[in-house]
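Hallway conversation turned thread

IA: we were arguing at lunch whether anyone had actually written out Vesicle transport protein end to end. Turns out nobody had. So, for the record, here is the sequence (174 residues) and right after it the structure tokens. Reply here if something looks off.
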Amino acid sequence: MQIFYKKVGTMDKLRRVLSGDEPTPEEESSIITQINDMSTLSWSTRIKGFVICFALGILLSLLGSVALFLHRGIVVFAVFYTLGNVISMASTCFLMGPFKQIKKMFAETRLIATIIVLVMMVLTFIAAIVWKKAGLTLIFIIIQSLAMTWYSLSYIPYARDAVKKTMSAILEVL
């Protein structure tokens, strides 16, 4: 019976918030806590979700590559490859949660890479599906891949610095 009254109280609070009435600070913190408690996944579930999404993303990207070599066209390749990248990026939402993931994606250290990746994903779809321009689609995929690599390296401490130093050493030799 106590659970019923607790749910009714929560529903009343939620109804007040949705109708525009301001909740008290105590009510606001308790609603947020309750929502967080209801949506929290166990660590093993998070790991499983991450692995499944990441593997599915890689599989889709590989299927796109196979489709390209089987002469199924650049559109099939672009769609599968880009969807694979989207799902791979989304897989980390299982580890840190979607809000924290979005916050980290748009942090100062990876803001430019994130924007380039997202814009190139959209342009890849547009070039492949709407414009049907194979060359342009391929250029967008290459830029998308490079931006995705740079974005991914931002999560590994000192990885970007190591790549910068390696590239400058290579350019000095040339």
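OS: looked through it. The chain has two domains: 1-54, 96-173.
IA: good, adding that to the notes. DSSP finds eight helices and no strands in the chain.
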